[in-house]
Amino acid sequence: MNAQAILQAEKLRISNGEGEPCACSLDLEIPAARLVALVGPAGAGKSTWLRTLAAVDPPAGGRLSILGEDASNLNETRWRQLRCRAAFVTMGAPLLSVVDGLTNLMLPALYHRTGNAEQVRAQAEEILDFLGYAGDTHTLPAYLNQHQRLLIAIGRCLMLAPQLMFLDEPFYMTDDASRRNESGMYRRLAQERGMAILVATHNLGFVKRFADQIVFVQKHCIWKFENWQAFAASPVAEVRAFLDAAA
């Protein structure tokens, strides 16, 4: 394994939905400060690949290493420890409904006792400023819009200073202005905080502008591209059909 890789997949496979390993496999190395996008048609398996790469779901085959640790066979204690360093943000950004946004943000750090209440609050406010959060932090999640809930969910992860973040369709149900703000935020997380970011998304404008590497997913195939230029110039028929449909 490359000692500088935060994540490494070797011949990684997912299930085909019928309990059998998918025919294709993925070899992937991701260093720090890199943004990788998983793209492909709806229903092709982007979320399944993302969950497998994040060690949320077990692989159907191959080897997965996250932060130097074999993630293919973790016990519950090690899995929980890994989640602190490799954050996973799901579509819809679920939050605790009975406490306000600021408390949602602070809970992980309070639970893990990374500081006293005053220190944790100061850290939470710094993260909200970094994320450009403009909402009322004392509002319950039900009264926040989707963009605000997403920022709170991401901020909650950042409270534990992860080195790796997985995001499943983060632009889901957000408006154009919010998507523009979020797009730059993910690049800043990679460049300014040195995080490796993996995003499963349909937002090709974001992918074109910010992705350092692209993984194209089809139901029975998967391809890697080093940048948007290589992806857009690919002669692969499935890629051409996908880009033509998106044009």
Task: Please describe what this structure looks like.
The chain has 247 residues and is α/β, with parallel strands linked by helices. It has a domain at 5-93 and 164-246: Rossmann fold, CATH 3.40.50.300. It is 40% helix and 21% strand. The chain has helices spanning 46-53, 76-85, 101-112, 117-131, 146-158, 176-193, 204-210, 228-232, 237-246; strands at residues 5-13, 26-31, 35-39, 61-66, 69-70, 86-89, 164-168, 196-200, 213-217, 222-225. The strands form 2 sheets. The chain has a 6-stranded mixed β-sheet, with helices on both faces. Strands 2-1-4-5 form a 4-stranded antiparallel β-sheet, with no helix packed on it. Helix 4 (117-131) packs across helix 5. The chain is globular and about 55 Å long. The mean pLDDT is 91.
Topology:
Elements lengths: L4 E9 L12 E6 L3 E5 L6 H8 L7 E6 L2 E2 L5 H10 E4 L11 H12 L4 H15 L14 H13 L5 E5 L7 H18 L2 E5 L3 H7 L2 E5 L4 E4 L2 H5 L4 H10 L1
Parallel strand pairs: 3-8, 3-9, 6-7, 7-8
Antiparallel strand pairs: 1-2, 1-4, 4-5, 9-10
Helix pairs in contact: 3-4, 3-5, 4-5
Report the sheet-strand fraction: 15-25%
**Average residue pLDDT:** 91
- Low-confidence stretches at least 5 residues in length (pLDDT < 50)? none
Residues in helix, %: 25-40%
CATH H level, superfamily name of the domain at 5-93 and 164-246: P-loop containing nucleotide triphosphate hydrolases
What's the level 1 CATH class of the domain at 5-93 and 164-246?
Answer: Alpha Beta
Give the CATH architecture of the domain at 5-93 and 164-246: 3-Layer(aba) Sandwich
Order of adjacent strands in the largest pleated sheet: 6-7-8-3-9-10
Number of helices, counting only DSSP H or I runs of 4 residues or more? 9
The CATH topology of the domain at 5-93 and 164-246, please? Rossmann fold
Structural class: alpha/beta
Shape: globular
Question: What does the radius of gyration come to?
Answer: 18 Å
Distance between the termini: 39 Å
Largest sheet: 6 strands, mixed
Number of E strands? 10
Task: Write down the secondary-structure element order.
Answer: EEEHEEHEHHHEHEHEEHH
